[in-house]
Amino acid sequence: MPTSDYQYEEGTFDVTPEIKRDFDENGYVIIRGILDKQEILKLRQALELEEGVKKHSYEISDGSGRTVRLCIWRHPGNDVTGMIARMEKTAGFMGKLLGGEVYHYSSKLIQKEPHTGGQFKWHQDYGYWYKSGCLFPDMGSLYIAIDKTDTENGCMQVMSGSHKLGRIDHTFVGGQQGAEAERVNQIGSRALFDLVPLELNEGDACFFHCNLLHCSGQNNSARRRWAIITSYNRASNNPIPEESHPWPLYTPIQTVPDDALLRCENFTDLRGKAFVDPATDKTVKVEPNSLQK
Q1: What is the chain's percent helix, strand, coil content, to nearest 5?
Q2: Distance between CA 157 and CA 165 in Å, rounded?
Q3: Where are the transmembrane segments (predicted)?
Q4: Could you tell me the residue range of the domain that residue 239 belongs to?
Q5: Is residue 231 exposed (0-12), middle (13-18) or buried (19+ Cβ within 10 Å)?
Q6: Strands (E), 187-260
Q7: Fewest beta carbons within 10 Å, which of 104, 129, 151, 180?
């Protein structure tokens, strides 16, 4: 089974040719400890504030009676959560993995609560980003574990190397979009790819390609599972501008040093983040009473 597993070392770590090969071959790389304990504590403080990004969250159905709570924003902003998207060890690394300048496409807080958190079906992020005018799969996401994530609390799983399949058609499953079930079943029945559970500690990260098939299970444990996912698009892949989708066109990232998260004291000034309104977002379906009270 491919590992694609590395340990972050402050001041010395960089995307090496070996890491780039792993990303290209397997569709993902794990970088452990990309955020240290102090950074995670500060990020948690920002995410847990009732007057912070959390107040913009809403629930979507997983198609099996459970829900997942999300909060999505289109621009990083200048608060603590915005620093995640703008550092060299996040945006800079993603640019090196995708082979060129990137810009912030979206960020997402995923909240899976104990005993009730729903699942995400097998899907590719490009399955719905394609529908938002992005012509090429020159996109990727950075998953950072806010809480310890393992099979017990429904961690993310990936099919290593499945990004080589190309884009699969996606349809709605409950309130979320999933890859065409029959195609996923055919892929699984042939055992084409290793199934890798992303068991991560707080502060560990996974960079993954937009066509990588991934899913996550329900949280049946007594532990919550929160994560933040920041997604990037190549500057050269500027979407076709359409009124039908509000996702961001190319906007250069205002980069910050790697210590910016620790130095930032802005927890609640969320101006400029452009939170997604689930009522107009065509990538999800929500119930009218699902918005955060």
Answers
A1: 25, 30, 45
A2: 17
A3: none
A4: 5-263
A5: buried
A6: 195-197, 205-209, 214-216, 225-234
A7: 151
* 243 DSSP 8-state letter: T
Query: Residue 2 carries which DSSP code?
Result: -
Q: Which of 11-20, 74-83, 174-183 has the lowest mean pLDDT?
A: 174-183
Residue 288 lies in a domain: no
Q: What is d(CA 226, CA 148) in angstroms, rounded to the nearest whole number?
A: 9
166 φψ region: left (φ > 0), alpha (ψ -120 to 50), beta (else): left
> How many Cβ atoms sit within 10 Å of the Cβ of residue 185?
11
DSSP conformation class of 278: T
Name the strand (E) or helix (H) holding 21.
helix 17-26
The two beta strands, 58-61 and 176-179, are: unpaired
pTM of this prediction?
A: 0.92
| Backbone angles phi and psi of 173, in degrees to 5 | -125, 105
In a domain? residue 272: no
* CATH number of the domain residue 148 falls in: 2.60.120.620
- Number of structural domains (the chain) is 1
Q: How far apart are CA 285 and CA 77, in angstroms?
A: 26
Asked if residue 284 belongs to a domain, the reply is no
> How many residues comprise the chain?
293
State the amino acid at position 216 in one-letter form. S
Cα within 13 Å of Cα(285), Cβ side: 11
β-pair type (214-216, 156-159): antiparallel
pLDDT in tens, 151-188: 999 999 999 999 999 999 887 766 667 788 889 889 98
Two tokens at 272? 């400029």
For residue 88, the Cα-to-chain-centroid distance in whole angstroms is 17
Two tokens, residue 204: 């560990």
Domain contains 170: yes
